[in-house]
Structures
1.
Amino acid sequence: MGARVATFLRRKVIQPFIELLRQGITPERIALTIALGITLGVTPVLGSTSILCTLAALALHLNLPAIQLVNGLVYPLQLTMIVPFLRLGAWMFRVAPPAVSVPYLFNLIRANVWHAIATLWTATLHALVAWLTFGCIATGLLYLLLVPLLRRLWLRVRTTPEVAA
């Protein structure tokens, strides 16, 4: 099972980014694409990440399929980060944290999306402030971490002849 997962990740995640490097997209642009895809992908508002990633890709001339790939990969992380962002937002605004869990949020949304929005409006705004604070720092750190790694990969790709499939 581990070999299948590794093969899947290589084919569907790593190889597309190697192809971008072969097409001449700079390691810096790919690092920015990945960093923003991760950061925007964990936005504490369900259903917003695809729109945010599309807007970022269009505004910054990034590769749209690549940022959406990263966005999709971090979806489980978004689900695990919603409640911590709600709690961090409550702490930042010195209010009681909402008593929520991910299953509760899904049930609330399934029952009536407008009621869910009205119920969680203030808590969500607080979570967004927490996410913005965290996201700015995280994007910068991810970018700084990814650039040297992608430069090394770029050098390896440039010096290794492409094998025909």
Note: The helical segments are 2-22, 27-41, 49-60, 64-73, 75-92, 102-111, 113-159.
2.
Amino acid sequence: MNLAKLAAEAGARGTPVRAGLIGAGKFGSMFLSQVPTIAGLEVTAIADLDPDRARAACQAVGWDSARLEATAFLEDGSALAARDDVDVVIEATGHPRAGITHARAAFAAGKHVVMVNVEADALVGPALATEARSAGVVYSMAYGDQPALVAEMVDWARATGFTVAAAGKGTKYLPAYHQVTPDDVWTHYGLTPEEAKAAGMNPQMFNSFLDGTKSAIEMVAIANACGLNVPDAGLGFPPCGVDDLAHVLRPKAVGGQLDGDGMVETISSLERDGRPVFRDLRWGVYVVLKAPNDYAAACFRQYGLPTDDTGRYASMYKPFHLIGLELSVSVLSAALRKEATGQSQDMRGTVASVAKRGLAAGEMLDGEGGYTVYGKALPVARAGDALPIGLAHHVTLVRDVPAGAVVTFEDVDLSGDPVAELYRQLCAGS
């Protein structure tokens, strides 16, 4: 509760927290817009493949000329991590391999890492967390993004003595969305391609939110950070509004839709026929609690928590998340408290690559949100040799894969790839 005070005191001492940002896209720009009004926080360096774009982003969010002149703009994220004027490295590229490289460069330089790049975290997050501990630095999820917000709610629930029955987020989902490609994504957002281009919106990135891949990545990140389970058959995306969370997101044995307690799940803001769900949670996060005894269950009712018909399950939710606008919480927490706002612990789940259509040997996979595959969350124990979506970028198939089939390591050639080997070691040890 005193993070702003700690930051202001650090600034007054002349030792503000100095952040370096890698990737000046939408998430990064939202963070940059807040920096001028946060006492004790500075951004000393920004790395982007297009430094001019990064500089333009700073201008677009209102930075004055003095702040721009005091900031270094460069192309190389690893070079940023090595700078003496950076205390916390923010990795916001969205590219798994780049995220791993930048995190390791930061650890080697003794810098804390805030991993906005959920793709990298879902792929090998537990290994990066271990490497950070060995280096004596913090590796953290990014507050404002849904996984860190859910991790906070789960931690609160456990610290107060409740069982976590379910945790996750809301999104807009229909089964047909799994086959959507960047060519037809904008119709689902109510935009024309021209409008989206004018707004600087990346069709592949936005398609990853629609085709289920981003939900799978985020739910796996939550499971791996919070010790929760991924559904055996993958995410079900049940239609559910906030008033029905405790009814729907409880075990099947007591009338719900989950395999058991302790699950991650994403709920849909659309009924299966396309009608909007009443009081949906499209932009928010939730946790469903299970009371440990009759007395606590009675308190749920007495203090107004929405419960299921048994009275034993209750829900809490946050109807929004402000992504980059909230990111400073993680940056300040890592530097001033040496504490992560959520951190991967072990590989409970993974995100398998599934063919959107029939794929032929010789085709190149284009990864998250693309034309060839979408990501499906699975328990590590059931995923077998599935190729994770984080490794399905610019890799060529060596044999045909039918539509709807899981792409496996045998379908591609990643022999000798160190990231692939690290991933497989993590899964084998889980």
Note: The radius of gyration is 21 Å.
